[in-house]
Design brief:
Layout lengths: L8 H12 L12 H14 L3 E4 L2 H10 L4 E5 L6 H8 L3 E5 L8 H11 L3 E5 L1 E2 L3 E2 L2 H10 L3 E5 L14 E5 L12 E5 L6 H6 L4 H31 L12 E5 L3 H11 L10 E4 L9 E5 L10 H15 L5
Parallel strand pairs: 2-3, 2-4, 4-7, 7-8
Antiparallel strand pairs: 1-9, 5-6, 8-9, 10-12, 11-12
């Protein structure tokens, strides 16, 4: 059993203090100084105008609002709302064939020529498991006149991410910026989405916690990367051996049975959350397998021996189901 990841102590203290002050002023959420401060810090970090929102999904909704009529998305390794939110706005969704979620530049070019999308909506890392060639993706799309929208929820704090025309991010648990709710959108041209942005604002309480979570983001993602490296070293069958990620994917037979055995071995948090996601699943990959979800645990308190213990539990649960 492992400690479930919670907002940092500093974030919880900041949110408690902000909650006690609610109602003392007449400011709207948009005018509240904690909201302005968090937006300022994020804008400086990402080099673009950032607006806080109530959730990552609301940020995606705002981004898609200004993205034209046809949205290209990966066929796996994205976020489930990539398929549904554009349709809410009456937009057509077309899918790019990937390699277990990894976007291949040549196939991206072919898909752009075939489907003529107005925007490409993708995640910085495929199913949290492997970083995408973000710089190349953005270059190709700009040359073809396609707007890029990048979900950086699983990579905030890493310099390879956040290069697209518009970035969106969830700060709901469990994420790098780990609060109970919230999100943000960033871009130079957000005027076309302001109606949605204003209707879906974050509370000053969440903004107060976000200011503190930002300070820990780089340390958190580095520990997640380290944990994934250790687990992959112990499980040679793990996918994406040469790629950085914050989760570990493994192809196997009977993934539900493997997840059950892993839970019995101890792959669970102190509040009862399983550390195993079963596939096929759009948000991870479409083949049969499992994903070890390190972002659910408090990695700042774990060392290499803890990660090796996780790998041992998973390895025992996998046998004899490994592909």
């Amino acid at each position: 059993m492992f400690m479930h990841r919670r907002p940092s102590l500093k974030a919880r203290e900041a949110m408690a203090e902000a909650a006690m002050k609610l109602g003392e002023g007449a400011e709207s959420a948009e005018e509240h100084h904690q909201v302005k401060e968090a937006e300022k810090v994020l804008s400086e970090a990402l080099g673009r105008r950032v607006r806080l929102m109530a959730s990552g999904d609301s940020a995606i909704l705002a981004a898609v609002k200004i993205a034209g009529r046809r949205i290209l998305i990966p066929d796996q390794g994205g976020w489930k709302s990539f398929r549904t939110i554009p349709e809410i706005l009456g937009k057509k969704v077309v899918e790019l064939e990937t390699e277990l979620g990894i976007i291949e530049p040549e196939k991206l070019e072919d898909a752009i020529h075939k489907f003529q999308p107005s925007a490409f909506l993708f995640t910085s890392s495929a199913g949290y498991m492997a970083e995408q060639p973000v710089e190349e993706i953005v270059r190709i799309c700009r040359e073809e006149g396609v707007l890029t929208i990048e979900d950086i929820s699983g990579a905030f704090g890493d310099r390879f991410s956040g290069r697209a025309d518009i970035v969106v991010c969830s700060t709901g648990a469990p994420k790098i910026l780990n609060l109970t709710s919230g999100g943000f959108i960033g871009g130079k041209e957000l005027d076309g989405a302001m109606e949605i942005i204003r209707a879906s604002r974050i509370s000053p309480v969440m903004a107060s916690g976000l200011i503190e979570e930002i300070k820990f983001a780089r340390h958190v993602i580095d520990r997640l990367y380290r944990g994934v490296v250790v687990i992959k070293e112990e499980i040679p069958e793990a996918l994406f051996q040469e790629s950085r990620g914050i989760a570990v994917g493994i192809l196997c037979n009977n993934p539900k049975k493997v997840a059950y055995r892993a839970r019995a071995q101890g792959m669970v948090t102190d509040i009862g959350r399983s550390l195993i996601t079963t596939c096929p699943r759009y948000e991870r990959f479409n083949d049969r397998g499992i994903v070890v979800e390190l972002k659910k645990v408090d990695v700042l308190d774990l060392g290499d021996e803890d990660f090796k213990a996780m790998a041992d539990m998973v390895g025992r649960a996998l046998s004899p189901e490994i592909v």
